[in-house]
Amino acid sequence: MSNIFKDSTWDPEDIKLLDGFEENRTLVLRATKQIFQDFCDQNLQGNEKVLEIGSGTGFLKRNWPENFHGEWIQLDSQPAFLKEAKKKLKNETYIQGSAYELPFPDESLDVVCGYGSYDVLMDLEKATKEASRVLKKDGLFFHMLDLYPCSSPIANDLEKKGIPLRTNGKYEKPEGVCQVKSISFIPEENLEDFYLESKMEENDETDLDLNRIMEEYRIIWKKYSHEIQTHDYFDRKMKQSLMPYFNPETIEKGNLTSSFKGKRTEQQKKMDNELFLFFNEIGKFYGYSNFTQYNMLRLNFPNMLNILPAGYDCAYRILKQISPSLAQTTEPSCLERSTIKYVKVRK
């Protein structure tokens, strides 16, 4: 969203942002689909009745394993998103509704899930309570996230307490989207000292050096502030929200990672014809031309596993200058690697 502090309810025009997210996800789609396949095989029978919360334009269902033959219901509060989802995948069940008031009877569903959806909810506990209500006994709840969590609910939590905060983020593709990695704030126990020291700086009316004042304020802020990673904050809050309504002993969270090696897709070539390595590290989408560049930028020590591909890549690039048509037939394989955060729990 262009303004990270506005209500987290998506606007109809934000569909362009969803398309942008999906364009990024497409770069590592084959690796991501392997994550879905492994998760499905390990946690589902394949015939469950599933409700997806905040389904958007249907990315998760469109890429879910084909060996799943249960009923999958996609719910979203935005009719514009559902309309677009229907264009991409027909003959599915779509419902406009709220995560806070699910239009289903008690204990009527086998699975409730979300993909980058629960992190945008302002009242996470209310939503998880409602998910528990509609799940059958021993039903599965899971949430996956391949971006940084939405910072609006985190900022809202702190602002309710009157706590000053700053976001530390980076604008990335799609344009206008600020992925907030961390938030720094002044803890309640430090507020009085922070305001006192800041007030002393503000009261010095003889000092007109704005740069110096800003630097002093930065030093004071750093002295009293704490920093929280948005992923860590959301992980803790999600766990706290699940514990009253699910079996705490079954809560499991962490990272799911998978790789895919094969020929590049047209989408990957379109992004940059010189890139052969594509990574998503839970919000950071990277492209590299070869393992040598990857090691240099990540400060990794090269080993035989990537020295050999780097040599093959070098030979390919030389051949490309001599005979582009021949080089095309010997193009090296690309590598996709996708990492997704997840949490799952049984009722």
Task: From the structure above, extract its key features.
12 strands; 25% strand; disordered N terminus; 9-stranded mixed β-sheet
Give a short overview:
This protein is of the alpha/beta class. The protein contains 13 helices and 12 strands. The strands form 2 sheets. Strands 1, 2, 3, 4, 5, 9, 10, 11 and 12 form a 9-stranded mixed beta sheet that branches. A 3-stranded antiparallel beta sheet has the order 6-7-8.
What does this 3D model show about the protein?
With 347 residues, the protein is an alpha/beta fold. It folds into three domains: 12-149 and 230-256 and 342-346, Vaccinia Virus protein VP39 (Rossmann fold); 152-227, no CATH class; 260-337, no CATH class. Helix content is 40%, strand content 25%. It is built from 13 helices and twelve strands. It has helices at 15-26, 29-43, 59-62, 79-88, 124-134, 152-160, 191-202, 210-224, 230-242, 266-271, 291-298, 304-322, 324-329, and strands at residues 49-53, 71-76, 93-96, 109-115, 135-145, 165-172, 177-185, 226-229, 252-262, 277-281, 285-288, 334-346. Strands 1, 2, 3, 4, 5, 9, 10, 11 and 12 form a nine-stranded mixed β-sheet that branches. Strands 6-7-8 form a three-stranded antiparallel β-sheet. A hairpin with a 4-residue loop joins strand 6 (165-172) and strand 7. Helix 5 (124-134) packs across helix 9 (230-242). It is globular and about 65 Å long. The two termini are 33 Å apart.
